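pinging the channel bc i need a second pair of eyes. not urgent but kinda urgent?? the chain im working w is below, pasted from the shared doc
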Amino acid sequence: MKYEIPVGPIHPALKEPIMIKCTIEGERIVDVDVFCSQNHRGIEWIGMNRNNPVQSIYTAEKICGICNFCHPSCLVMAVEEIVGFEVPERAQYIRVIQGELERIHSHLLWAGVAAHELGFDSLLHYVWMVREKVMDILELVNGQRVPKDVLMYGGVRRDIKEEHIPKIREMLKYYAEGFDKIAKLFLQDKTIKMRTREIGILTKEDAMKLATAGPTTRASGVKKDVRQDMPYYAYPDFEVKAITPDMLTGETLGDTYDRIVVRLLEVKQSMEIIEQALDEMPGGEILAEPKVMKVINQIKKSEGEAIARHEAPRGEAIHYVKLKEGFEYLYAWKVRAPTYINILSWRPMLMDMQIADIPIVAASIDPCMSCTNRVTIVEDNRERVLTAEHLHRLSVQKTRRLMK
């Protein structure tokens, strides 16, 4: 006998609204369907209709509370390419440091959530206590713990001062000394291994077929990382290599355990990148043009389109931007957050799993619904299924409208 179990859109295991419908036989999951679009905020519309281009940087920060650097970073890079802003070298290094601080924060936050989904709340509280160190540094450098408000077209608004550097190094030393303990708690605890090893497997073939991104795809053995493949900012100086689980365990299964391994190793990698950036950071200016109104006028006089990519903590973020001369706002702005593509992996991950595995498997991709959801339009109270041909036709029509 088959039964359908709806998980969500409001559920203790889900931190944001989404519906996962699982068909089960006994305790075994035999079919999975996912329903999004319970949380749409219209951020792209705001950027194209209400905000000037500088205001849109800080609107982009609200796409995701945790990834509040990578999304405005994509927007800024795209506009800089169109307008031709030359970002000073020091600003490039500061952007790298900000991005890696965000990665450390995001992965530690995720590790705590993963422990909670496994019922290991003492580990949740321990990891989040450790996470406070990077939060303190974000507050020291940016003046606030969560939103950074540091980016500007042509550079950054705030410098990393000499008095900040000893505190940042102290944070790096703190994590270096405590890393082995965190790794041991997550990777050697018998209960965590039983709940994550060979649970929620995403094969390398499925990861590539579904075009998954970030730790989700790297845990399946796909060596894909924008910092490695198409390095931006000062990343060419750091020779970043995509992290895969076999670097630590000697094998790759693509399960929930491997996704823990990848994120822990990436925290260590981020620490090394920040250390190198502090050692090699050049002097000089941090903004190509300090006058904001002059920046806005340059953007309004520009015309063109660009795509920017940033390796966010959850995976590759992509922003498409089009500017039109004389137009007050962004003429076109389209965001693809990493969860938008990673969520497709839930189906192969959950097939043949147990009901009790749903929370940790769902959490293992580090989903963010608020930066993923799009509005759903229902016409005449009827649902419609759009074929690939229909979607292609709509895409062509929209592209032609934008090109006019």
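so Residues 44-335 form a domain with the Cytochrome-c3 Hydrogenase; chain B fold (CATH 1.10.645.10). and The chain has one domain: 44-335. — does that match what u expected or am i reading it wrong
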